[in-house]
Structures are given as structure tokens and as C-alpha cells.
Amino acid sequence: MMRRLAFSDVLPDPLEELSKETVLEKDGSRFGVRSIQAGDRILTSRTRRDPDLDTVWTIEHLLKDTDDLRAFIQIPTLAIGGAPNISPVLETERAIGDSGIVMIDTPDPLCLAAMLFDMADYTVIASTENLLFRQLLDWFATVLIPRTEAVAKALPGRLWRIYGPEYASPPYLRP
After folding, report:
1. So where are the chain's domains?
2. Alpha-carbon distance 38 to 76, whole Å?
3. How many Å apart are CA 15 and CA 35, to the nearest integer?
4. What order of strands is seen across the sheet that includes strand 41-49?
5. Number of helical H runs and strand E runs in the chain
6. pTM score, whole prediction
């Protein structure tokens, strides 16, 4: 069983005060719009979730070009802090006993960065704007590394699934 871990006592997300989110129900589907003020730009993403499906489709990605990327990485990263809430993992381990294994599930910085773009834009920008894209990876790493260390310390010896490296493999990027 895969489990994500929430953090308690986390300081406010800087994107929250810069963001506006709206949700609209239409023909049974749920449409979400998130707009983020990044400097003098407004970055917008749109999603759709259809009834009876546990899939959120991105209709419009947050970052569309290098100007959007430059604006995004100027936003302060999420303040580090908080402690992982490990009780869901421990409860699941007790519940399944010897009949399975609990796996901690987390993205890597590349996954979070790539998901901000349409796949075509991601491959072009990641391939041609190496230094700029590296800044985006570092932006996400400043949050993910301390959180990963905190979870690993609180739950040593557990199985992890870290997803995202597939974005750096063919056919998307050169090896």
C-alpha cells in the first residue's frame, strides 16, 4: 500500500497568499482554476475531474514559457518546518500485518518541475534552458530534501517509491 505523509505545524505556503483558486461544477465534472501572482505576471492553470474517475486532467499548465518560469522561481519557497504525521503509515502497517508492505510515496524535484509544463514545452525548455531549469529543480529541492530527511528519520527502513526520474529518460530527454 502506498502512503503519502502529511506534515503538521507547517509554516504557511507562500503560494497560498499569492494564489486564487476557484472550482466550478459543470455537467457533473469539476473544473479548477488556480492563478498565482508572480511578480508582474499572473500564472494560471486549469484542471478537470470527471465523475467516477480518480484522475485530475490538466487542461492548461501553469508555466507556458521561459518568462513564466523566470517569474515562478522568484517566488519564495515554502518555509521549512513541521514534523511528519507518521500515524497513517503505522496504522496501515498494523492493519495489514504480514500480508503486505507499506510504501512511502513521494515525487522528486524533476517530477514537480515537469508537471508545471505541457509535455512539449517541458522537453524543449529542459533541453535548451539548462541553467534556468536547474534553478527550478533547486527551488523544489529546498522543500523536498528536508521533508524526505524528516520522514526517513521518523520511519527508518521503509520502502520508498520516488517518482519523477522517468521525465529525464528517452523519449523525453537525451540520456
Report:
1. 2-12+63-168
2. 10
3. 10
4. 19-26, 29-38, 41-49, 57-60
5. 6, 9
6. 0.86
